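Support request, please re-run this one:
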Amino acid sequence: MPLERLDKVVSSVCEISRKDARSVIKCGQVVVDGVTVKDAAVRIDTETVKLTISGEDKTYKQFVYIMLNKPQGILSASNDRSRKTVVDLVKADFDRPGLFPVGRLDKDTTGLLIVTDDGDFGHKVISPKSFIEKEYIVLCDKPITDRDVKVLEQGVTLADGTPCRPAKVLVLSEDRMTVSIVITEGKYHEIKRMLGVVGAGVCQLHRKRIGGLTLDPTLNLGCYRELSVSDLCNLWK
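Re-run finished. Output below.
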């Protein structure tokens, strides 16, 4: 890991602004490897140094990765002036600057959403070039026929002429109105628009999986937890 400025590290671990972090450092409240440091510009190796702030030992994390079970009615955005966002949901435990949702789920769509402050990671996950699968459980307003499945699995062209890659489709219910759809892109309203090609509407939409990372069944709607190293490895499988 490259060396990081002390004020950036203090800002991150204390969840305060860089300005406030510099004040904490200047007041002599930051100890690095047993030595009080008052220079905010000092660069430290966050993997090897022992950091104590106001008498409390601290561990620095360059980035955080959060699994959220997104509920309905919440925006997949970092901030909004009048409406609650997914970042608002996790702020109580992860009040870090730069948090954003990896990709978007529609306001009324539920399920797996990753929130992070790692821009490179987020771009890689949502990039169509990565071919990472996203699995959705869909309740349709009509039965999905074998012909509909075949059409979706061959790859459809949306009403505006946009082509979609072939999907994987599995009918899950006896009435054929609940299906699993797996895609490797993330076009605007892609699932809804794909189903529209076969004359079906979406009543409920829930994302279950991204790559090899499946939504933790113990997380109720609106709940979240930090992803482990194992979780992150599974995502790329």
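The CA atoms of residues 6 and 19 lie 12 Å apart. The chain has a mean pLDDT of 93.
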